[in-house]
Amino acid sequence: MNRLIKCWQLVLVAAGLTVFAHGLMAQDIKDFVLGAEAAKRAKTRDEISLDTARKIAEHCYKEATDRRQGASIFVLSPSGQIVYALRSDGQTPIGVETALLKAKTALFMRGSTHAEMNRMIQNPSRDATLRPLQSEFGLFWNSGGLPIVVNDVLIGAIGVGGMAPSAEWSDEICANNALTAVLGPQPPLAPFLP
Fold first, then answer.
1. Sheet containing strand 145-150, strands side by side
2. Is the Cα dihedral 15, 18, 24, 25 positive or negative?
3. For 41-64, how does the pLDDT look when each residue is reduced to its tens digit (9 = 90+)?
């Protein structure tokens, strides 16, 4: 009888691990990009859909609101076009503009704007090297811009502005939480450097 119980316990553990592993598996990119007809009209593939962009932006907006903070959020297509934008009441023009700049920078650099900001803090000569790019292309290296990647394919970028950064909460954490909620697990964020 004990042997039978242990056997069933092993079966249940194995089944649980299978379900858990399935949840960590790569998501189907088709769930997050333009449908076949829209892609045909736009003559593009692997571009974030309006539905996915809306879910991401609204998740971040809700988290900011729950913390009694405002946020400006932009989700861009891989070609840099605005797919969805959301702005809390009371956002200043700088909060709105920096959110858009962060999204553009994450898209252009194909990486976290916060990670680039950390590299510049740790290596000031890098700042001088990249300053021409910053002014030429309107790049903004500050926490809050992330690429949106599914199965190693860039489908867009998100930029969030308007919140004061800290190690516990920031524009970037809000964006990352939204990406995780909608798309699944995301790469670790860059460390917060005071």
1. 82-87, 72-76, 153-161, 145-150
2. negative
3. 777 778 999 999 999 999 999 999
- Please give the helix or strand (H or E) that residue 63 lies within, else none: helix 50-66
Rounded to a whole number, what is the distance in angstroms from the first to the last CA of the chain? Answer: 60
> What φ, ψ does residue 173 adopt, rounded to 5°?
-65, -40
Which pairs from 59-67 meet CB under 8 Å and 24+ separation? 59/177, 59/178, 59/181, 59/182, 60/158, 60/160, 60/174, 60/175, 60/177, 60/178, 61/86, 61/88, 63/174, 63/177, 63/178, 64/88, 64/162, 64/163, 64/174, 67/169
20 CB neighbour count, 10 Å cutoff: 9
Distance CA 53, CA 55 (A): 6
pTM tops 0.85: no
DSSP lists the bridge partners of residue 48 as 33
What CA–CA distance (Å, rounded) separates 72 from 91? Answer: 7
Per-residue pLDDT tens over the stretch 4-44:
444 444 333 343 333 333 344 457 877 888 776 876 777 77
